[in-house]
Structures are given as structure tokens and as C-alpha cells.
DNA sequence: AGATTGCGTGTAACTAGTTTCACAAAACGT
DNA sequence: ACGTTTTGTGAAACTAGTTACACGCAATCT
């Protein structure tokens, strides 16, 4: 035994010169005069260990500053697993609420959450999923609106296949199931229904000249919300007027620009439904700048129920999407706590001051 | 060789019955008729590999559906490392901006970001850091306001020590350095200076009865911002009136409650500085409800420059903290791209409509 | 008393990679 | 043609754990 002892240099690994080599399980076992197996059992909370040995191992661990190597553990399929949260950009309360929902479930169940942003770059997306696959994450949540073209559908199906290879799953959050690939589970909120509810309310109030401002086609959220507007109007027997549909990027400045153009176009408009609260705020600005009084001369309804919009003048009527709940449900599926079925959560229409009967 | 072949059962590991065992490097090497060492070199992008062997290995890998095991790699100190982002709660644009800053740096440098919430529970915080330590993260960013008592300071120093043991570091974000532990690096923005700038502007406009509404003592952000108010008043030779300092939780409803009590207390108040925009929005509500006209009868200045507050009526004057930049700088230190020095970033005063000369 | 059960433990074989070292063969220089 | 480098490769020893299996010994059961 003593030969074996001297045989082993104090720091076996010949790494960096300054880096004090970390004590490992072997060192602890040796110091506690037990086998590695017994030492391992102590840290794995295996009950079949003599209390005496356990104490010696724990004491040695403390003395040597031993910290279990979670990576070695993970390799054996032990220890906490992780799920990945992949989003286009970490922006705003939407991201925060979704992330919080995911983390709350993961945290409660001893899982870790990896968060990454793709910046909309498919190459980065692909690289990221490759890395996550190598790290054997349990699931990848692909969060948010995505391109509506087939290229995304195929990409996503490829990711799902690749992930399945390592027993991981892909879950889409905040966008609907992919057309040709029903096995690709989606957790979404009913975006068209949300916008339809807004239109319904305006029609009920007596509006017929209802405009829509939102992003142009290409992304799921843009198309779904526009679609909600169109189907609601059709359902009410109101003809779609192309002059009433305007394209704007999802920010206040461009929303203001689009609203300004719309309001100065000469077309009669008594109400505007916007794709997002951001655009609605832009519409407020444009209307104000043109001397249009809100809400009596123009009703505006947003979407997202962002913070503070309820304190605008007039308080913005909007649609509240259950972002936190989407995160929760997606995480539950990711962890196998819920069946792998598509989920479509309802939105809540929030009637405030900005929608009234036409003047 | 054929004996060796049959000797190995197709699925060596006797794991779950349905789970098709993953091909590993040995399988690939065998299939490509090279040694594991050579196969390893192929995936490690080691140039000393015959193109012919490389092709055979890659072909075998494809055929067997081989995915490098990143966990095994990580154990060897290869592959992507990760940094952890630990926050009290994943709420609002503050969290989002900080997270985005961290992720942008980490992502660009091939690192992964683990995000977790403590919910303010020190036990969960401790467990979390233990897990992160075991997983050999490169750094833990402890984000946001923390308790001001010594218990936190000691806890944090303990975390730093524990993390140092595994060559990881602790970085505090959005709170100042810990008093007795200067080695504990902090990345913060100048919170007192931000509030002071708000007070300075109000004094310049002619206000002397300037109230403050914010959280009570106990957390760093609450104390720093209040302190900025107090020092600015003192600097201007204005006596501190305890009746002008009100406590409110950081939300609109409680901000409204506190503002209501203040405005109905009989004390003269011509301006309110609030700890956060949330509270400022509550103050708007309370003032409105009491028939006080904004901004001519009452100036209000917030802090955080949350989205949409610039579109309130009147547009909220506030202080813009560089949250994204804080995240960036913290991540740079975490990755060793910047020196381990304390960072204190400036805030930007955003003058809008809610602060005017007293009526 | 003899058989049976069960606890505690160690050996050795796993998890899946990387890397050092030695050694051959090919390429290059004289 | 001969020595020297370069290149490519494989065996084996590492990274740091877990765990199946066997075995000794003590406690309980017939």
C-alpha cells in the first residue's frame, strides 16, 4: 500500500503549473481508508454505507476540499439534467415571462435551464442545437415566432430528428404546430382568436372601418394575428379593404409611421387593431400628432398586454397572452410531466379605455 | 477481428429495454477500421489525420448516427464552458436586458449560459451554487439587488471561496461591491448618482418640497437610490423632511397607495422622485385620482426607463440604467476578457414632460 | 446448530472521451 | 544511398465518476 502511495504523485495530472489540482474521489477514498466504491456511495446518498465510514469520507472530503464532479456524474446519467431555451432575442417582458415559466418548472424539478439567442441566424441556430445535442440536454424549447416558409419546417423537423437520436425532444413554444410534422409538439396561445376577440368587440361597439397594422408576412406571429383580423371581419360580413391593412415593424417608431400614413391616406378609419402593443403605442403617437382625439375619434386595440400600457391615456385595450403559462406547459412536456400533445392556451381580452363606440 | 466483433454485443450497455444505445467513439473507430485515438482526432479537429482516415471516420459516424458526447468532453476540459446567471426572479425588461447582455458576450465566445431564479430563498441560492460548482461552471453572476445585512455579505464571500476552489469566480451584477470583501468583483451602475441627477434637475427647476417614494431599507437598490435622494438634497442645502419619504413596494398598486397617502397628508409636495418607474406610474394614478394635474401641479421622476413610460401623459422623466451594458461587462469579466476590477457604469438622465417648474 | 438473510465493502468493469508516448512509414535533405 | 525530419497511427494511460457482482461476516430463522 505504501508503494502505491508514493507511486502516486500528489498532483497526478500534469496541467498548468499554478492550478492546484482538484481532489478527486480517489483521493478522498484513500484519505478515508475506504474504496472508491464506498466513497462514491456516500456522495450518491446510497444508504448501504456504515455510518462510521460515511463520517470518515465526509471528513476527508471536507479536509481535501473535495467537490463532486457533476460532469463525470452527468456522463453516467446521474445528477441534474438540463433543458435548453432557444429564443431569437432576449427582449422584453414576453421573453421574461416565458423564461420565468420554464425556469419555475425546471427549478422545482431539479433541472437546469440553458438560455441562448439565435439573433435570427439559422446557422447559429443549427450550431446551437448541435452543441445542445452533444451536451445531451433533455429537451430544446424553440421559442417564439419563426419563419413561415418550408425551410423552417424542414429545419425544425431535422432538429427534432437529430435530437431524438440522443433521446432529446424539440418543443415549439409560441408558434403553432408545423404543417407536415404533427409529431413536432407545439405549445402556443391562440393568437388568431385573440385578435378576433378584439375585432369582435369593435364590431359590437359599432365599428365597420377597422384597420390593422402589423408586420408583413414571413413570420408565424405576424401571419396568425393578421389572419385573426381577417377571419373576424369575414365572419361579421365586413369586406376586407386592402387600404386598411398596413405593414409596420414591431416597434413604436415604425408603428407611428404606419399609423400616420394610414390616418392621412383619406380612407375612413374609426378603429385600429395592432399586432402588438408596441405598434399600438406608435399609433397613439401618430394620432396625437395629427390632432385626432383618443378614444372618441379613433379606437385602438393592442396585443401582448405589456406593462404600463394600462396607464396610457387612454388606457390601452389589449389582449393578454399567457406567456408564463406557455413556459410552464412547455417545460412540463419537456420534463415528461405532461403528455406530448399540442397545447393551445386561450388569451384574455382586456377591455380598457382605448376602445369605444365610433364618434 | 471477427471474434472481437461478435464478442461485443450490439448494445453493450444494459440500460432501458426500448432505448437504442447510442453509438460511441469506439463503435465509430471500429467501423472505420481505425483506433479510437484517430477517431478522436477527427472530431477534435486535430490536423494530423490522414484525409483518407478522416473520411472513413466521418462516413462511419454518419452511418452510425454518432454524436460526440459533450459531457465526456467537458470532463476533459474540452468543449464549450458555461457561465451561470442567477437572479432573484426573472421579471421584466431589466432581467431581459441584463440577460441579453450576458448572452451576447457568452454566445459570441462559444460559452453557454445557465439561468436560474432563487425566488429570494437563500437555501435555494446555496443549493444552486453548489450544483453549479459541481458542474464546473466558469463563473456565477449573482444578479440584482441583494439584502444589505452582513448575512448576505458572508454568504457571498462563502460562495466566492467555494467557487474559487473549482477555479470559478463569483461576480455581482447590479449591486455594489461587498464592504469587507473587495476581492468580490462587482459590476454595477451608479444608482445614487442617477437619483441625484433627478433631484438636481428638480432643484434647478425651482422645487424644494421634493418627496421620495421607494422600498424600505433591507435591499441594496432600495438603499442606494434613497441615499442618492438624501445626498442630493443635502448638497443643495435642503433639509430632509421625514414626512416626504414614503415606503412602497416596487409595483404600481403600492406606489399608488403610498403616493395617495403622501398627497393627502397635508404636507406641501411639488415633486416626487420614485425608486422605480413602476412606483412612478402608481404615483400618476394617485395624483389623477385626487384631481391633481400633471405635470403643472406635481412633477414626477422615475427610474429604470421602462418601455412605454415615455408615452404616458405626461411622458415620464426618468433615469436610464445601462442594463445591457452591465450584462456585457459582467460576462466579459466572467470569460476573462476584461480585468477583474469593479465596474461602475454611468446612468443617463432622460428628461421628458413629467418634470417642470413648480406651479 | 445449521441455514438463511442482509449489510457493508472492495474489485473491476463500465460511462465516453482525450492525450502522451512510441513507433512505423513516407518525405526530404545532403 | 543514407540520415533526418515529418506525418499518421495505435496502445495505453489518463479525465472522474457509478455500479454489478462477489464475498465476508453478523444477525436472524428453523
Question: What can you see in these coordinates?
Answer:
- The structure is a homodimer of 359-residue chains.
- Chain A is 43% helix and 14% strand.
- Chain A has helices at 2-7, 25-32, 36-43, 51-64, 70-75, 92-108, 122-134, 150-165, 191-205, 220-235, 252-263, 277-289, 323-334, and strands at 82-87, 112-117, 139-143, 169-173, 186-189, 210-214, 245-247, 271-274, 299-301, 318-320, 343-345, 348-350.
- The longest helix of chain A is centred in the N-terminal third of the chain and has 17 residues, at 92-108.
- The radius of gyration of chain A is 28 Å and the shape is elongated.
- The first copy, chain A, starts with a helix and ends in a 9-residue tail after the last strand.
- The model of chain A is unreliable at 1-19 (pLDDT under 50).
- Chains A and B meet through helix 5, helix 6, strand 2, helix 7 and helix 12 of A and helix 5, helix 6, strand 2, helix 7 and helix 12 of B.
- Strand 2 of chain A pairs antiparallel with strand 2 (112-117) of chain B, so a sheet runs across the interface.
- The structure holds a DNA duplex (30 and 30 nucleotides).
The helix content of chain A is: 40-55%
Rg from Cα of chain A: 28 Å
Please count the helical segments of chain A. Answer: 13
Could you tell me which chain pair has the largest interface and how many residues each side has? Answer: A-B, 57 and 57 residues
Count of extended strands of chain A: 12
The class by helix and strand makeup of chain A works out as alpha/beta
Q: How many angstroms separate the termini of chain A?
A: 96 Å
- Looking across the biggest beta sheet of chain A, what order are the strands in? 2-1-3-4-5-11
* Shape call of chain A: elongated
Segments of chain A where pLDDT lies below 50 for 5+ residues?
A: 1-19
SSE series of chain A: HHHHHEHEHEHEEHEHEHEHEEHEE
- Quaternary state reads homodimer
The mean pLDDT of chain A is 93
Strand percent estimate of chain A: 5-15%
Biggest beta sheet summary of chain A = 6 strands, parallel
Amino acid at each position: 500500500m505504501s508503494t502505491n502511495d508514493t507511486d502516486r504523485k500528489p498532483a497526478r495530472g500534469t496541467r498548468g503549473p499554478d492550478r492546484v489540482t482538484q481532489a478527486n474521489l480517489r483521493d478522498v477514498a484513500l484519505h478515508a481508508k475506504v474504496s472508491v466504491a464506498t466513497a462514491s456511495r456516500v456522495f450518491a446518498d446510497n444508504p448501504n454505507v456504515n455510518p462510521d465510514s460515511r463520517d470518515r469520507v465526509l471528513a476527508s472530503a471536507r479536509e481535501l476540499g473535495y467537490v463532486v464532479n457533476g460532469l463525470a456524474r452527468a456522463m453516467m446519467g446521474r445528477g441534474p439534467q438540463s433543458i435548453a431555451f432557444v429564443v431569437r432575442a432576449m427582449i422584453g417582458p414576453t421573453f421574461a415571462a416565458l423564461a420565468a415559466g420554464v425556469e419555475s418548472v425546471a427549478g422545482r424539478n431539479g433541472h437546469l435551464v440553458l438560455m441562448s439567442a439565435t439573433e435570427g441566424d439559422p446557422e447559429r441556430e443549427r450550431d446551437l442545437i448541435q452543441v445542445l445535442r452533444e451536451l445531451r440536454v433533455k429537451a430544446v424549447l424553440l421559442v417564439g415566432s419563426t419563419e413561415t416558409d418550408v425551410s423552417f419546417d424542414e429545419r425544425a423537423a431535422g432538429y427534432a430528428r437529430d435530437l431524438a437520436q440522443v433521446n432529446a425532444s424539440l418543443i415549439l413554444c409560441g408558434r403553432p404546430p408545423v404543417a407536415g410534422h404533427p409529431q413536432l409538439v407545439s405549445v402556443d396561445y391562440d393568437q388568431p382568436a385573440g385578435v378576433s376577440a378584439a375585432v369582435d368587440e369593435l364590431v359590437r361597439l359599432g365599428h365597420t372601418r377597422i384597420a390593422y397594422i402589423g408586420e408583413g408576412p414571413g413570420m408565424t406571429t405576424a401571419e396568425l394575428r393578421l389572419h385573426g383580423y381577417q377571419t373576424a371581419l369575414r365572419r361579421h360580413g365586413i369586406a376586407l379593404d386592402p387600404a386598411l391593412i398596413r405593414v409596420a415593424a414591431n416597434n413604436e417608431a415604425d408603428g407611428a409611421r404606419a399609423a400616420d400614413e394610414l390616418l392621412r391616406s383619406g380612407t375612413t378609419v374609426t378603429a385600429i387593431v395592432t399586432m402588438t402593443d408596441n405598434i399600438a403605442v406608435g399609433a397613439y403617437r401618430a394620432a396625437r400628432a395629427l390632432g385626432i382625439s383618443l378614444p372618441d375619434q379613433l379606437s385602438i386595440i393592442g396585443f401582448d398586454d405589456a406593462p404600463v400600457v394600462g396607464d396610457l391615456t387612454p388606457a390601452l385595450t389589449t389582449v393578454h397572452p399567457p406567456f408564463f403559462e406557455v413556459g410552464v406547459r412547455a417545460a412540463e412536456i419537456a420534463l415528461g410531466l405532461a403528455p406530448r400533445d399540442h397545447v393551445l392556451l386561450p388569451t384574455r381580452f382586456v377591455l380598457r379605455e382605448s376602445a369605444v363606440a365610433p364618434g
